[in-house]
Amino acid sequence: MISTSLLTEFKTLLGKDNVLDSESDRHSYSYDAAVLDAVIPELVLRPTNSEQLGRTVALCNENKLPMTVRGAGTNLSGGTIPTKEHGVVILTNGLNKILEINEQDLYAVVQPGAVTAKFAAEVAKRGLFYPPDPGSQAVSTLGGNVAENAGGLRGLKYGVTKDYVMGVNFWNAEGEYIKSGGKTVKCVTGLNIAQLMVGSEGTLGVFDEIILKLVPPPVASKAMLAEFDDIAKASETVAAIIANKIVPCTLELLDNATINYVEDFTKAGLPRDAAAILLIEVDGGHIALVEDDAEKVLDICKKHGAKRVQMAKDAAEKNKLWEARRNALPALARARPTTVLEDATVPRSQIPAMITAINNIGAKYKLQIGTFGHAGDGNLHPTILTDRRDKEEFHRVEQAVDEIFDVALSLGGTLSGEHGIGTAKSKWLEKETSKATIIYSRRLKKAVDPNYLLNPGKIIGG
Amino acid sequence: MTADVHQLAKMLHELDDQMVACMKCGMCQAVCPVFAETMNEGDVARGKIALLENLSHEMIKDPVGVQDKLNMCLLCGSCAANCPSGVKVLDIFLKARVIVNTYMGLPAVKKAIFQGLLTKPGVFNSVMDVASKFQGVFTKSANEVIGSSCSRIDLAVIEGRHFMPLAKKSLRKLEPSRNTRPGKSGYRVAFFPGCVIDKIFPQVGQAVLKALTHHEVGIFMPSGQACCGIPALASGDKGSFDKLVKRNLEIFEKENFDYLLTACATCTATMHELWPLMSGDKTQSMQDRIAAMSAKVMDVNQFMVDVLKVSMPVEGHGTKVTYHDPCHLKKSMKVSEQPRALLKSNPNMEFVEMSDADRCCGCGGSFNLQHYKVSKDIGAQKRDNIVASGAQVVATGCPACMLQISDMLSQHKDQIAVKHVMEIYAETL
Ligand SMILES: Cc1cc2nc3c(=O)[nH]c(=O)nc-3n(C[C@H](O)[C@H](O)[C@H](O)COP(=O)(O)OP(=O)(O)OC[C@H]3O[C@@H](n4cnc5c(N)ncnc54)[C@H](O)[C@@H]3O)c2cc1C
Ligand code: SF4
Ligand code: SF4
Ligand code: SF4
Does the pLDDT of residue B357 top 60, yes or no? Predict the structure, then answer.
C-alpha cells in the first residue's frame, strides 16, 4: 500500500492534478493496445519536468514501488501493463517538448513524451527528415518508439528507430541521471549504453532526453502496385529487386485474404482474385534517378510474373494506391470484434513458406487470418480475426499464435520485427536466443535495477 | 451499493457487442479535443470504453467515477470519425449515459429543466419571452461587432462568459408559421429551426426562409415545434427525449414534404441519426414512423447545393470570410464542401480557409456548462485559428458553435463577426 504521507509527497512534488489515484483513473491505465490481463496500478504519476521525473523515480525506488513508464500506450506487447501489486504508472505526456532541432548538425533533442508525427512534421518544416514512421505515429511517443525500437513502412531503406538514436539521457532505477551517446556523428566514448537502451522497454531506465539523428529528405518518389497470382512469385520479385541493387523505401505485401477484406471495406477496385499484391515506392535525391529506378522495378515485377503493374502518375494516384495499405488494419479490424495483430519476421526468401504455414495454421485451427506486412524486410503481420469473448475460439487463437512463432523461428526468423516482447512474447524469448542469454540479461538488469522495480515482468520476465 | 453495481453491470452488457470492437489501439488520442487539454486516458474514447467494460464486468465498484468520465466528453464524434476499427463511439456513449444516469438518477436541476420546461414548449417559450425582456437588467453589451453581452455583476455561475442575448423577438414571433406550395423548384420542405435559432438567432431562420422563398421552394413551418431532444439525451434523460421526438413527429406528420430541413448541425445529426438509433424500445409502427421522418432530415446547406444546385462559385472580393466545420455536420453527416460552396458564391466576400477548420470549437452543449475551463481552452485554439486566418467574418452551420465562437472572440475583444452560412448566402439574393 502507498502510505498517505508518500501520496502527499507525490502531490507536493508533482501538483495535485498530476497525481491520479481515483478508481476510474487507475483503471484507465491498466491496459494498452495488447489487451492482456492486468494488475491495476495504485497510482498514476505525471512529472512535467526533468527534475520531477528523476525525483519520482527515486521516491518509487526508496519505497519499493514497481514502476511502469507509459507513453501513448500503443505498444502491442503489453509493455505498459502493470504486472505487480502496488505499482505505479509514470506518464510521459507531461514531458512532450521538442527541445532543439539543429539544422546545421542534423540532430534534434526531444523529451520522451513528444508525439512522433508532430516531431516529424516540425522537422519537415525545416527541410529535414525523420524517417521512422510506425503506423501509430499520430499518437505514439518518441520515448515509446525508442523503448520499443519501433519501425515503419520506410524501414527497408531508412532503417528503424535504433538507426536514429544518437544519445539517450535517462534516470536509472535509483534516480541518478545517466548520460549516454551525444550530439556528434562519431562518438565512441565508453560503453554503448544508448543503444542498449533502445528496445529496453522501460526495464533499464527512464528516458529523459533523447538525441535523434536527422537526414535530408528525398526530393522525388514513385509508387506502383503489382499484382501476382502466386505468392511465391511476389516474394521472388522482392528478392530480385534487392538483388538488382535497388532499395525501395517501401515494399509492402498484402495477401489474398487481406486484399478481399480491404476490398469489402473500401471498394477501391483491388484485384480480389490476386494471390498477393506488392506496393512499392522508390525515392531519392534526383527525379531522373528515381524514375529510372521505378522503370527497373516495373521490369523486374513483370519478369517475375506480375500479372499487372500499375504505376502512379501523380500524387493523387499514389495516394490511392497507399489507401489500400492504410486500410489493411481498419478493414481487418472491422471483420470480427477482436483483432490479434502479430509480428513474425523471417528472412525475405522465406516469405512464401511463412505465408503458406500461416494459412495452414489458420485452416487447422479454423481461424480467419489475413496477412500483410513489410515484405522488403520480411516483417509480416499475420492478423487473426476473432472474438475474445468466445473462450473456446480464443484458446485456438493462442495455440495458433504459438505455432506461428514456432514456424517463424524454424525458418530462421524472429519473434518480433518491431512490436517488442513485453509480457506477451517473453515466454518464447529463450527459444529464439538461449538460456545463457536470458541469464546474462537478468544479471544486467539486476546490476542496474537492484530492486527489480523498472517495468518488472517485461522481456526477461521476473 | 454492490447489488446496485450488479444491476448496472447487467444493463451495460447490452453494449458489449459494440464495445468489444474497440481494439484499444489508442488512435483516438490524436483527435480528441478533450484529451488534448487534460492528457488523461480516462477522457479519451479508449479509456471511457475500457471503464464501461470494467463496470459491466463489475471490476469497478464506483459508478460515479465512470459517470464523471463519461460526461467529460463533447460528443463531437471526432474519435468515431477517425477510428480504424469503426467503433460506434457516440452510440455507446449516449446509450451508456442513458443507462448510467437512469440508474443513478438525474440531478434535480436537469430534471427541472428537461421535464418541467423543455418537454413543455408552451411553458418554455413563455419563460424565455419573459427572460428576454428582463435580461438587460443583469447584462451589458460586451462586443458590438459580435453583439455579445456579459454579466453586470461578477457571478460565479457565469465564469466570465460572454453570451449572446436572447433575441428581442423570437423567430416564432417574427414568423409564426408558414405553409406554402412549391413554385418553380418543384420542392416542398419542412423547416425545423430548433431552440437556439428560434430564441437567439432568429435572423438565421429568416435567412433560410428568404433563400427558400427566393428559389421558390414550398415551406411548411408549423407552430408548436419542440426541441430536437439532444440536451435531454446527452444528459441521459431518455424519457424527456422520447416525449420530444413524439411531439415533433406528430406536428410534422400533418403535412407532406420532400425534406425536413434544419440550419443547426446538431439538430440535423440528432434527428437524422439519434432519433432512429434510440427508438429500439418503441412499437414497430412508431419505429417505422421515426425512420420515415429521420430519412427526410437534411442540412440546409446540403439541400441548397446538392438538391437545388444553387451555388455558383464567383471570384469574391472584399470582406474575408472563413468557415468553421461543426462536428455534427462534418464528422456525423459528412457535409463540408456544401457550406464552403455557398460562401464562395457571395461576390462581396473572399473565402479564406483557417487551419484545423474541422477541429471542435469546444462547446459540446452541456459540456460547456459543466466543464467551462476545458471548453474554453479548446475554444481558445479555435479563436486563434480564426484570427490567424485574417478573416473579418467567421461563418459556420451550427448555432451552438456560433455561441461558443462568439464567447471566445468577444472575450478577446476581436472585431470579427460570427454568422451562419445561410445569412451570408441570403445576402447575395
Ligand atoms: C495501430 C497501430 C499501429 C502500429 N504500427 C506500428 C509500426 O508500424 N511499427 C512499430 O514498430 N510499432 C507499431 N505499433 C506499436 C507501437 O505503436 C509502437 O511500439 C510504439 O513505439 C509505442 O509507442 P508509445 O508511445 O505508445 O509507447 P507505450 O506503448 O506507451 O510504451 C511502450 C514501451 O516503452 C516504454 N517506455 C515508454 N516511454 C518510456 C520512457 N520515457 N522511458 C523508458 N521506457 C519508456 C514503456 O514502458 C513500454 O514498455 C503500432 C501500434 C498500433 C496500435
Ligand atoms: S481509435 Fe477506435 S479502436 Fe482505437 S482505441 Fe479509439 S475507439 Fe478503440
Ligand atoms: S466524442 Fe469527442 S470529446 Fe468525446 S471522446 Fe470522442 S473525440 Fe473525445
Ligand atoms: S457546437 Fe459545434 S463544434 Fe462545437 S461542440 Fe457542438 S458541434 Fe462541435
Answer: yes
First to last CA, chain A: 21
Q: In this model, does residue A66 exceed pLDDT 70?
A: yes
Per-residue pLDDT tens for B358-396? 999 999 888 888 899 999 999 999 999 999 999 999 999
> What is the pLDDT averaged over residues A439-459?
93
Let me know: does B322 contact B354? Beta carbons within 8 Å: yes
A31 pLDDT above the threshold of 80 = yes
Per-residue pLDDT, B412: 93
Say yes or no for a CB contact (<8 Å) between B85 and A74.
no
Query: Among partner residues A31, A139, A389, which is closest to B30 by beta-carbon distance?
Result: A139
Higher pLDDT, B418 or B128: B418
Q: Which residue of A has its CA nearest to B82?
A: A330
Indicate if the pLDDT at residue B11 is higher than 80: yes
* Percentage of residues of chain A with pLDDT beyond 70: 100
Q: Which of A22, A24, A39 to mutate to test the interface with B (most CBs of B within 10 A)?
A: A24
Query: What's the CA gap between A178 and B62, in Å, rounded?
Result: 42
Q: Is A106 exposed, middle or buried (0-12, 13-18, 19+ CB in 10 A)?
A: middle
The span from the CA of B309 to the CA of B423, in Å, is: 18
∠ CA(B75), CA(B80), CA(B83), 5° rounding?
Answer: 150
- The model's confidence at residue B134, banded by pLDDT at 50, 70 and 90, is low
pLDDT(A343) > 90 = no
Distance from C-alpha of B153 to C-alpha of B286, rounded to nearest angstrom: 49
The mean pLDDT value for A39-43 works out to 95
Which regions of A2-106 does DSSP assign to beta strands (E)? 19-20, 43-45, 67-70, 88-91, 98-102
Question: What is the spatial distance between Cα A283 and Cα A247, in angstroms, rounded to a whole number?
Answer: 9
Least confidently predicted of A12-26, B83-97, B126-140, B329-343: B126-140
Grid cell at residue A79: 509493455
Which atom of ligand 3 is closest in space to residue B364's alpha carbon? Answer: 3
User: Looking at B343-392, which runs of residues are DSSP E strands?
Assistant: 349-351
Torsion of CA B178, B172, B291, B100, to 10 degrees: 180
Q: How far is the CA of B306 from the centre of ligand 4 (A)?
A: 23
For residue A309, which amino acid is it?
V
> What is the DSSP track for B237-270?
-HHHHHHHHHHHHHHHTTS--SEEEES-HHHHHI
Of A23, A33, A73, the CB nearest to B41: A73
Ligand 2 lined by B32 (C-beta under 6 Å) = no
Strand residues in B226-376 grouped as ranges (E): 259-262, 297-299, 319-324, 349-351
Pocket of ligand 3 contains residue B32 by CB under 6 Å:
yes
| Gap from CA of B263 to ligand 4 centroid (Å) | 14
Kindly state whether B355 is in contact with chain A, defined as any CB-CB distance less than 8 angstroms: no
Which residues of B fall within a CB distance of 8 Å from A27?
42, 50-51, 54, 59-60
d(CA B160, CA B146): 16
Ligand 1 pocket check for A343: Cβ under 6 Å: no
Across the interface, whether the CB atoms of B66 and A24 are under 8 A apart is answered: yes
Give pLDDT, residue B239. Answer: 92
User: Regarding beta strands B218-221 and B188-192, do their DSSP bridges make them parallel or antiparallel, or are they unpaired?
Assistant: parallel
Task: Count Cα atoms within 13 angstroms, Cβ side, for B140.
Answer: 4
* For residues A172-182, average pLDDT: 95
- Residue B31, min C-alpha distance to chain A (Å): 9
Looking from the CA of B384 toward its CB, the CA atoms found within 13 Å total 8
A42 lines ligand 1 (CB under 6 A): no
**Would you call A29 and B41 a contact, using CB atoms and an 8 Å cutoff?**
yes
CB A71 within 8 A of CB A113: yes
Q: Is the dihedral of CA A311, A250, B78, B344 positive or negative?
A: negative
Whose CA is closest to atom 1 on ligand 4?
B401
